[in-house]
Amino acid sequence: MTILGAAPGPFGKSHSGAFFEDFRVGQELRHAAPRTLTTGDAALYVGLTGSRFALPCSDVFARSLRLPRAPIDDLLVFHVVFGRTVPDVSLNAVANLGYAACRFGAFVFPGDTLAATSTVIGLKESSNRETGVVHVRSIGINQRGETVLDYVRWVLLRKRDPAAPAPDPVVPELPERVAPAELELPAGLDVTRYATGLAGARHCWQDYDVGERIDHVDGMTVEESCHMTATRLYQNPARVHFNRQTAAADRFGRRIVYGGHVISLARALSFNGLANAFRIAAINGGRHAAPVFAGDTVYAWSEVTEKLELPGRADLGALRLRTVATKDRACADFPDRGPDGRLDPAVVLDLDYTVLMPRG
Amino acid sequence: MTILGAAPGPFGKSHSGAFFEDFRVGQELRHAAPRTLTTGDAALYVGLTGSRFALPCSDVFARSLRLPRAPIDDLLVFHVVFGRTVPDVSLNAVANLGYAACRFGAFVFPGDTLAATSTVIGLKESSNRETGVVHVRSIGINQRGETVLDYVRWVLLRKRDPAAPAPDPVVPELPERVAPAELELPAGLDVTRYATGLAGARHCWQDYDVGERIDHVDGMTVEESCHMTATRLYQNPARVHFNRQTAAADRFGRRIVYGGHVISLARALSFNGLANAFRIAAINGGRHAAPVFAGDTVYAWSEVTEKLELPGRADLGALRLRTVATKDRACADFPDRGPDGRLDPAVVLDLDYTVLMPRG
Amino acid sequence: MTILGAAPGPFGKSHSGAFFEDFRVGQELRHAAPRTLTTGDAALYVGLTGSRFALPCSDVFARSLRLPRAPIDDLLVFHVVFGRTVPDVSLNAVANLGYAACRFGAFVFPGDTLAATSTVIGLKESSNRETGVVHVRSIGINQRGETVLDYVRWVLLRKRDPAAPAPDPVVPELPERVAPAELELPAGLDVTRYATGLAGARHCWQDYDVGERIDHVDGMTVEESCHMTATRLYQNPARVHFNRQTAAADRFGRRIVYGGHVISLARALSFNGLANAFRIAAINGGRHAAPVFAGDTVYAWSEVTEKLELPGRADLGALRLRTVATKDRACADFPDRGPDGRLDPAVVLDLDYTVLMPRG
Questions:
Q1: Which chain A residues are closer than 8 Å to B6 by Cβ?
Q2: Angle between helices C259-269 and C224-233 (to 10 degrees)
Q3: Among candidates C150, C191, C184, C183, which has minimal Cα distance to C67?
Q4: How many Cα atoms within 13 Å fall on the side-chain side of residue B267?
Q5: Least enclosed by CB within 10 Å: which of A15, A125, B217, B268?
Q6: Are the beta carbons of B226 and C230 separated by less than 8 Å?
Q7: Could you tell me the end-to-end alpha-carbon distance of chain C, in angstroms, rounded to an integer?
Q8: Do the Cβ atoms of B30 and A225 come within 8 Å?
């Protein structure tokens, strides 16, 4: 395996991230460093996002679903795996273009240690020859080698040398969404005793209709120290989030909030209306429509886009959701695409994902 | 049991909080969601408040009192129980008017899971018919059903419809203070080996006199991200704390710091002078005299208002304290009521509570 | 033993810190209060500093070195021991002048409880008779009485009364650096299976040369709430870090970032170039060349000043490092002393310390 992170850069033993030419299709990256997740990480995640979903917060609730204890929040797992990949994949990214085919696997429990690897599955030089798109498939595994997360993302990277020859373009085919048969249902999970009211709402899978829209009502203002602490917790070292001085000279003139923090805020807000969406099973796709900065207030609304029966499960179903987050604009009127097909300028996130819910 | 939080609001499955008409005397509310408290919550509580009391910070110290390990800070328990009640009781509160009869019960240890219920014990429409006062008695229990906290609070709520008929007024009688015989002494607690100096000061119960005043000297400036992170940790979703945009249009033009955070800061400051007040046994009453905002610096002073012997306990006694917190004003001269009976305008908190102390 | 913290001050039972006259050579101070370190403290430390070293973050990695689990970060141990000493030693310090002879001993694991004691080893009145320098040797021990940290620091303290007679001056002799034979190698540590790449870089002890300089590339902006939360986590109550109101009247007009937080940021940044420096074995000396304030962006570079073989260890070696941190100035050109011998004005920290690294 190649460890890009260990490649010497222009400053000796430190490194400044990879460029487009550093990748080849089929290359495997084993990311540093394994991370043990603890109840400390879980507490800080609640403190930084305000998430109120019952499952990651309550051992008693988790045991009512026949789990040994409260698992780590799905998105905290996502961010920690993602954070591991940043030094090797996206430290120099001009942009994070998207993700797809993201499936959550085994639950992660406090004390589990996560490691991450990536495989380069796509490379395509841009027509201007100055940048290129790199697709990687990243996998997070626990200390028993079980997959906890599996996703594809693609980033736009600068070339070190625009004149450098480019490989034949490879663009992977990606599914429009994770198929129901591919959703991972954690072993042992039993929701027959799921106490809906106790989780914060009565509404279960059968109470939601395709096309239904839900305003999540509340707004959460982002502070520099909150988003930086979250991103540091994930050990995601991408510079645009942390350096006021260099950010001042950048396009936006300010530190950019890690897009994953915005996803976490939108998910936390979605508790008000989707309290029983106890597990994110898949992220089908997502777009950060605009950057978020400190001082912005994030709101969200959701639409049910599909209702999925799960093979052999009478106790739970899946909902495919589209959650749209905005900044500085309440969502009572569901800001969306206009007649011209363009997203409302207040929209910062358009996330397509699949959650599990008890059928009640 | 009725779960108000689950009642559909004007935005479909999300809800915007209850109004005065939604309550009736005798109604029971079972709040979502149970929460397991961990050493992670405890660490973040120390980081956000600076509390230095020995008992919640040291397993060794706790074992010297024959406890199995360091318990969770009393006020962290209070805030987590309080946070559970907010969606069902006070999301729409115009004001939190007061609390009384608050008793702390069993110690909470890391790994314990707290659930909360409330009973409506008072309802009184205001004379303008636009609002009304709701009294609730809230109880926090652990996973073994033991009461860890028990208190009454009352809030001013808006009516959904001013013309709606109001129930007969009921205003509960509340004790002026929790009587010594009603103070809960945690089972197994033995302070005969309490090492006063090790806890930060030599002064024990017998060293304090009624009427004695103590300036706690230090000041702590509040930052937006600190109070928001604390309030999110407690999963208290009251909007006034989090939304810069809507706050800008409100009375104060700014996010308001959760009053409980101010209590925590005052308690943390009180370590300097009351280091051996190792346990809050009761909160007899409290008044948030003025709101605190980010940028304010909180100071505090205390007065011993009563010395209470505890039946059958030669090892420990109780002190009834009045702790007054101010903003942007040091407390060396004990800012208090003026000759006109009005509190000094710098006062933000006037708290009447009872602590346990070793007799030494 | 004397407990200075318990001495009554001008405000009754609270205290305002010690003055030069309160100390005598040979005096022993037993600091309050013991503190149990947990995975919660560890998580918050990662969130506040962004540290990415593998050992304190991964139980699996720790076990590969034959440790029972991930130990607490060395600097978190330092700050918690240091924090305990502040109320008794440096609450009134005009300046923290330096530290020396700092050795890290037994690893601290989550659940261990640390206590701290200090011995006064030097006293010297200043020529103006208004202040004096106090040297203390402080020791941190765990619940089994094992030393986890041992260091000397000296502070400049005001005299309560300039006319008070001063003791004969005593200035301890301090080593220029901790000798290799005095470095503590934690019992049971075995780095023969150390996976360098997995820790974030391939470079081992033998890959570094004396005189080699490394730019750590990244910068980290400090926020008020981040440094205050870190300093509160360590229960370091020194007022200059927390009180915006009194700071406004001070020399700098602003709250000063705890120097230890700057050390932690520099260490966290140094991961990029020194990822396998898995353990700080000693701090030989250090100087806070200038204060850091919220809004400043901290950068760092390091120089290898000595390569030390460790007696009887073929598996690991030590590097003596000089890490220089700056504010608002990138370190690609290694800002240092000018021809006039003065440090570049952007330098905030000049730290001389010794790390352990696998020999590979």
A1: 196-197, 200-203
A2: 100
A3: C191
A4: 27
A5: A125
A6: no
A7: 47
A8: no
First-to-last C-alpha distance (Å) of chain B: 47
Q: How many residues does chain B have?
A: 360
Q: Do B12 and A214 touch (CB under 8 A)?
A: yes
Contact call for B200 and C33, based on CB within 8 A: yes
Residue pLDDT, tens place only, B88-126: 999 988 888 899 999 999 999 999 999 999 999 999 999
B321 CB-near residues (< 8 Å, 6+ apart): B274, B277, B302, B303, B304, B305, B351, B352, B353, B354, B355
* Residue B66 one-letter amino acid: R
Torsion region of A233: left, alpha or beta (phi above 0 gives left; psi -120 to 50 gives alpha): alpha
Mean pLDDT, rounded, for A343-351? 97
For residues B315 and C232, the answer to whether their CB atoms sit within 8 Å is no
Cβ contact, residue pair B6, A58, below 8 Å: no
Q: Tell me the HSE value of C164 on the side-chain side, using a 13 A CA sphere.
A: 17
Task: Give the residue among C178, C19, C151 at the shortest CA–CA distance from C74.
Answer: C151
Q: How far is C52 from chain B (nearest CA, A)?
A: 19
Per CB-CB distance under 8 Å, the chain A contacts of B246 are: 219, 297
pLDDT digits (tens, 9 = 90+) for C97-112: 899 999 999 999 999 9
Residue B4 pLDDT more than 90?
Answer: no
Length, in residues, of chain C: 360
Question: Taking the CB of residue A67, how many other CB atoms lie within 10 A of it?
Answer: 18
User: Which residue in chain A has the smallest CA separation from C298?
Assistant: A243
Q: What are the angstrom distances between the C-alpha of A70 and each of A110, A130, B69, C46?
A: 8, 47, 21, 22
DSSP A261-326: HHHHHHHHHTHHHHTT--EEEEEEEEEE-S---TT-EEEEEEEEEEEEE-TT-SSEEEEEEEEEEE
In one-letter notation, the amino acid at residue A113 is T
List CB contacts of C159: < 8 A, sequence separation 6 or more: C19, C20, C21, C125, C129, C130, C131, C132
Contact criterion met (CB < 8 Å) for A242 and C224: no
**How many beta-carbon pairs under 8 angstroms link A with B?**
156
In chain A, the residue whose alpha carbon lies closest to the alpha carbon of B11 is A215
The DSSP secondary-structure symbol of C307 reads E
Question: Rounded to a whole number, what is the distance in Å from the CA of B261 to chain C's nearest CA?
Answer: 14
Residue A108 DSSP class: P
- ipTM field: 0.96
CB atoms C14 and B215 under 8 Å: yes
Nearest chain A residue to B48 by CA distance is A47
Dist CA C24 CA C28 (whole Å): 9
Fill in the amino acid letter for C310.
Answer: L
Q: Is the pLDDT of residue A6 over 60?
A: no
